[in-house]
Specification:
Blueprint: E1 2-6, E2 14-16, H1 24-31, E3 42-48, E4 51-57, H2 70-76, H3 83-96, H4 102-107, H5 109-135
Parallel strand pairs: 1-4
Antiparallel strand pairs: 1-2, 3-4
Helix pairs in contact: 3-5
């Protein structure tokens, strides 16, 4: 039987059959269901009193530089102001110029309802996006960002 030690985890030594520690990849596969953060861990071997000792050390990964999905989507998204705010600015300007009459407001009722509905839809989309971003799991980056 071999012993797997997970450094800096506080977990007791894990006894496993020797074939489980035959390769680094087998060690990672054995631990993956219980320790997902060890997917890229460093694996070292030693021997004590005829027993194989495998030490698994979590490797620091890169953070926050996976630009493939989120940033690309944000860049591709059209820039726009909330429809209700746009209409509010138009109506405020018309009021200041003395062009906003009751008749004009009555004619604009459908446009006002549509702007409010569209503005509410946009707010809901933004809130849903913020929620997804906050709940998103960290993903190791594929490259290292240069510091300038």
């Amino acid at each position: 039987m071999a012993v797997i030690k997970i450094s800096s985890d506080g977990v007791d030594d894990i006894l496993v059959p020797d074939e489980v520690v035959a390769t680094d990849e087998l060690v990672r596969q054995a631990l993956a269901p219980y320790y997902a953060e060890l997917a890229n861990a460093d694996v070292t071997r030693s021997e004590e009193n005829g027993q194989i000792i495998v030490t698994v050390t979590k490797r620091a990964g890169t953070k926050g530089n996976d630009t493939s999905g989120v940033i690309s989507a944000l860049r591709a998204a059209p820039e726009q102001m909330n429809a209700a705010l746009v209409l509010h600015h138009e109506l405020t300007g018309a009021k200041e110029r003395g062009e906003l009459t009751l008749q004009k407001l009555l004619r604009l009722q459908q446009k006002i309802r549509d702007a409010v509905d569209e503005g509410t839809r946009q707010i809901n989309e933004v809130e849903a996006s913020k929620k997804l971003l906050k709940e998103g799991l960290p993903v190791p980056g594929r490259s290292i960002l240069a510091r300038y």
